Amino acid sequence: MADKWDTIVGPTQYRDCFVQKLLDSNILIRNASQLLVVDFGCGTGLLTERLRELVSTKTEFVMLDPAQEMVRVVQEKIKKWQKTPNAATIQVHCMALAHDNDALNHIHGTVDLIVASSVMNFIPQKDLHRTMKVLGDMLRDGGLFVHSDWPKAKDDDDDGFTEASAKELYAMGGLSCKSTEVTKFHMANDEEASVFFGIAEKKK
Fold this sequence. Notes:
With 204 residues, the protein is an alpha/beta fold. Helix content is 30%, strand content 28%. It contains 6 helices and 7 strands. It is globular, with a radius of gyration of 16 Å. The N and C termini lie far apart (42 Å).
């Protein structure tokens, strides 16, 4: 599945919409001098693949995913990326943050931006608080957590985000809500889907 993921899910349109939101919100500044970015739930690395084209080569990426097969695909991609001139520094770790995060102690309190594209809805409820605590601890003061997920469709639905549930999520990581919105992202075959897009900040 991991080897075919990029073609099965038709994810590049969704990814490009996510990146455009980062640019429109002035979260990602083209050719920023230096950033430390965590791609949480990186899958096969499509989001970092695009982001690395837009930022300074001094930017560092840390890619995290609990699925070993996804990480294997990413590692193969990184070998190709690093052959390009002035390639950005990229680390990749296979881990579930709620249970295994010691390898990330070196970035504690230093991360500028965490991106999570269609990830948070898939984290088991029992692991959510611990996961957000680890993510919040990674961020520097003023660092941002940005995610896209599906919005809650009905009041009685268990899945999906509202502004209220997003604020509860951010609070688990010691983060403050900057903004939330339901917007439209392009999907495969140029179809549109409603997407919840949230931004939270680590404050002193």
